[in-house]
């Protein structure tokens, strides 16, 4: 039954004849591990092509071992969440049996879950737990890790649903390679209509579904190094547009807001850059680096232990040699007195020489211990530096968010300024029209002068009203300019903050590289200031002014 199920989930054809042939001589009891493992390797694992559902394979393995090993103590997580933690454990555990997860990987996993819950990380609490763990063993088994997370020791104050959503988010990122997911609008290729879809970004593909339950898949966007993503201006009533260009198709997508648009563009561009460089996903690359660092430290520690053992063995050999020499000297002491004196003198010389060698060996051992302490201190300094860089990265993200908010405020003030200018232009056109009519009235005959005089008075009053309105618009425009200056100062402040963080990051040997905005289109400069209008708005206003001028003539 086990072999048949393994073949089913691994998409390997099951051969019952080979099974019977392999075990035809084993008729005296249950199949042993030693007898089944060669069959498993030869007839099942060697035929695996990689085109199987890894989640279903993990679920089958979970079914085989969960009932026997899972704790009977009530946990704060469901069986499904425990299964996901078990799969994550298999991904983060060391590559040796029995499988364990070391304290560094436990800290990484708990940090990811805590961040997904939106809670603060309790470093001091974990340090106490780590000290207690290191005194007893090297790491935790899968079932101990499930008990740790299910006990709620590091998720106090959080309900079951929040913890479950956090575990699911970490599972999607580490196991299913989901880099980003969410709802967006997609433009159809045939009917050109916009439909809401649930998008899932993975290292080499973007899949979109009808809803987030992932049951009804509508299509895929295959990513490679030749793909690119571009932001589009708002049009046809759709905002926050961007474009994904592939070799055979182009996809237009609309995000819910500007922040989501920028996040998706950045995530897709990062994925394409990784494909061009041939790099693995970020979480796999980070896991490999952590593993290499642990292996390097372990190798250095083993080398120091080997050297210590060699020194200890050499010291024991010296002690044995001294003991042998002492016995030889005692045996020779029974001989002649003159020969005894010579041997006693030789013994003293040998003892002095070996004492010097022992002192030298002690000094070497002391130096080795100092080097071990120095390596430990360097490791602590390196970890502290990594934590400082992570904190600096978070602060840098906050500064970038402030800069984005300042740019949005500037855009709002520009739109207000454009509206005021449009109203002012309309008033000016109306004023010029009235002025032309007044001049034509003055040139009329004297017989109509009295009647025109009355009309002129009425128009002058209207002109005064228009002038007052014009002054009011001037005041509003000045206020808008003042608001624009304030927003501009905020933007400069945010830019200076960003620059200072860039200098700090550059000072830390470039371990973090900032993602800077791309090239911008040339700014327009009008009599109202730089970037007051876009090209499309300027062309529209020129057409409006020409039409009003033709009407007045």
Outline the structure in words.
It is a single chain. It contains 14 helices and 9 strands. The chain is α+β, with helices and mostly antiparallel strands. Among the domains are: 53-175, no CATH class; 180-277, PH-domain like. β5 and β6 form a beta hairpin. α12 (337-442) packs antiparallel against α13. Residues 283-504 form a coiled coil.
Main attributes of the structure:
PH-domain like, coiled coil, 14 helices, membrane, PH-like_dom_sf, single chain, two-stranded antiparallel sheet, 553 residues
Mean pLDDT score: 81
Structural class by secondary-structure content: alpha+beta
* Spatial order of strands in the largest sheet: 4-3-2-1-7-6-5
Q: How much strand content do the residues show?
A: 5-15%
End-to-end C-alpha gap: 95 Å
Instruction: Give the beta-strand count.
Output: 9
User: Largest beta sheet, briefly?
Assistant: 7 strands, antiparallel
Q: What is the tally of helical segments?
A: 14
Q: Return residue spans where pLDDT drops below 50 for at least 5 consecutive residues.
A: 509-516
Write the layout of secondary structure elements.
Elements: H1 2-9, H2 16-22, H3 33-43, H4 54-69, H5 79-92, H6 103-117, H7 123-134, H8 142-150, H9 160-174, E1 180-187, E2 194-202, E3 205-209, E4 217-222, E5 228-232, E6 241-245, E7 250-254, H10 258-277, H11 282-332, H12 337-442, H13 449-507, E8 525-526, E9 529-530, H14 535-552
Antiparallel strand pairs: 1-2, 1-7, 2-3, 3-4, 5-6, 6-7, 8-9
